[in-house]
Amino acid sequence: MTTPQLRLAELVTVLSLATDIGVGIPMEMMLASCLVSVRLGESLRLGDNELREAYYLALLRHAGCTADSPHAVELMGDELGTFRPWIGASPRQPLQIMNVIWRGIIDQSKPTLKRVELFLRSMSELPLVAVARCEVAQQLAARLDFDSRVQAGLRQFGERWDGKGFPQKLKGDAILLSVRVAQVAHDAVILHHFFGAETTVAAMRERAGVTHDPAIAEAFCGRAASMLEMPRSLREEVLACEPGPRRLLNDAQMESATRALADFADLQTPFSTGHSPAVGALAEEAGQRCQLPDSEVTLLRRAGHLHDIGRVGISAQIWGKSGPLSEADWERVRLHPYYAQRILAQPQALAELGMVACAHHERLDGSGYHRNLPANMLTPVMRLLAAAEAYQAMIEARPYRSALSPVQAADELKREARAGRLDGDMVNAVLAAAGHRTPEVRRQRVADLTEREIEVLRLVARGLTNLEIAAQLIISRKTVSRHLESIYGKVNVSTRAAATYFAMQHHII
Length: 509
Ligand SMILES: [Fe+2]
What we know:
binds fe (ii) ion, 62% helix, 27 helices, globular, mainly alpha
């Protein structure tokens, strides 16, 4: 089965889901903001290019949300819980903004004196956090090959219509029209989510001429109800309404995109910098040593890049704790592969990659998370990625422990294999890939079948249908058919019973 090519818009919608949880709002909020931007842009008769800019700017609005997270944590504590008070503050009332910072933004768990210090720092440093985020968003857009106008637009989200924004204090028409449209759509969608339709319209009218272009704010308010009405399948609707040409990502662009998303996730904490590409590279090397097909090696590398994309939905405050995590913290940590699964569930071009990525904390004895999958649900690539991720994490320092030496990490990984939590063959492959001396890792191929073909054959022999096999191995029905066709070719038989007999002869079952 050939994997369909990924559209740029599909990739950016995936990123937008990650940025939603990365700023502490429910998934699909930036999709909603994108749809409202397009509706607003059409009602204002924007040109094709500006409409396309507004579309992508809305989706990429928070693409820099992981920049400067440690700084944000220092000021705010749980940086993911501050969106509601912030968006609700009226820009016309400086005292209200100061009150929101004092009561809703800065870390409330600190003693009063410390809070006073944080408050004073926040007044000057919060804009810097926002500027850093805009800059990182712009850099990410550059890596995704967006043109200079989209990149420039991402640096203008802190600007205000009245010229009192940052970083350049641009005023009125000096701010790109596509940015002004996306600003109105963004605030309207978020206000609507937190405070309802009535408050949203009142707030947008109040902000007209202050933070927002008055003509655009009025265009929204005049048709607020229809602007904010969301379809059942928001993602499909957003993909369907992409203005202009639909760009497909070629192989090199796909590679660059998964690397960019890896860096986006790793940037959230200083100690995770470089973690995801390193996992991808280690898993790739181990996969080659296992003689996996090229397609599975590529899958491994990219799943390594994206495996921790869901971590941005957990506060950097939790990741950065130097002591043991509380039960509540652990519950949140266990969510990060679930978030990855949700983020990567669509489109089809990413679905298989997503299933592998989100299984990186699963263990063969069912003790892993987030689904506690048993061994027979863990495919070779999932097992390999789990071993590679575990090794790579061990040799990196964390706030609660020093980095293990490569020898210590290898011993620990072997212990995990002996305890039945990690696959011994995969551990050997990972250790060999990491430069350790290990037993021969070249996997002996039974009857020249790949690992995946053997797994399919085992399930055929147990009487499962193609559909059931596909569900069990979390692959498509077409992939099962392809594997079966190749097995039948190799054993030169045409019936399932003969294939089963063949499997028995070779001790595959
Ligand atoms: Fe993880």
